[in-house]
Fold this sequence. Notes:
Oligomer: single chain
Radius of gyration: 23 Å
CATH class of the largest domain: Mainly Beta
Largest sheet: 8 strands, antiparallel
CATH architecture of the largest domain: Sandwich
Number of strands: 11
Number of helices: 12
Strand content: 25-35%
Shape: flat
Number of domains: 3
Amino acid sequence: MSRTPLTYTWVIHNVKGRGNEWEECSSEFKKKGGGERNVFFTLSAHYEEGNILLYLKWKFSTIGLALISKCNFSILNSEAARQVLFSKQFCGIKYCYSAEKSLSTTFDDLDKYLVNNRLTIQVDVTIQSSDDDEVVFKEPCKVVQDNIRQGLHSLYQDEALADVIIICQGQEFKAHKVVLASQSPVLRKMFEVDMKEKETNIVEMTDIGPEVVSALLAYIYTGEAPNVETLAKDLLMVAHKYEIPRLLTVCQEQLINKLELSNALEIYSSAKLYGADKLQKVCMRFICSNFDALCKTPKWEGLTDHEEKALLLDIVNTIRF
């Protein structure tokens, strides 16, 4: 039997600004040092009479049968020390493993688990397998996806077989209709119906900058958007306009991580405008939880009467329901 140690680390941002009831789900995790497994976390919080109940769920699945002998679930606290929440022993070979645990604390004591209002959960997993059963841990689908992504990126970089040009502020970006159409139904319609883009093979993007176009194309071709941290608001608008839901999700996560008093109103406005439902809900919870402080900020004082009335109505409806 061979042993494979794996470590998964999940960071939840803005823990104390989320309101009384919330749930956060992780995306697929990667093992440190490379290699992926289907690992997901769900963390929910319930506040009652000054106490907080954090409820952690964890799920690990493989393509083939695997044997997990033990899992350690830990929180990395403010001293960067690891506090073990609980350990889980597993018996038997399965396709899927799961575990769950609750942690009860007070709002004030929660600080000892947080670093800059972030909660870090770490899970250490030990997988056992026979030496001749390596197929259990291979992920052929992931290999194929990587090959396709690399091929598309190379095609974009080399501008080989490009059949459409995107023009933005005088800069030209060569691309491929079939790739753009596969990721955006809006762009696909431009190339299918009798619109000028179909006839000229030119798409003009006048409402964004060249750096945003570059990031958009990088995401369409590779699934990764460079500089998404700094371009999240612009890319949120682009994802909405061209109906690219996965990019919309990425931008929402980035903006949630940046949420603070100085930008909460602006981000909330963008979330409403561009149909970012998750971001809108998180922003509204943040606004309600920090209402007194927000009212004293320059952003609030700069609201027009119409904007202030609309925002107050949204707050009332949120509290009511």
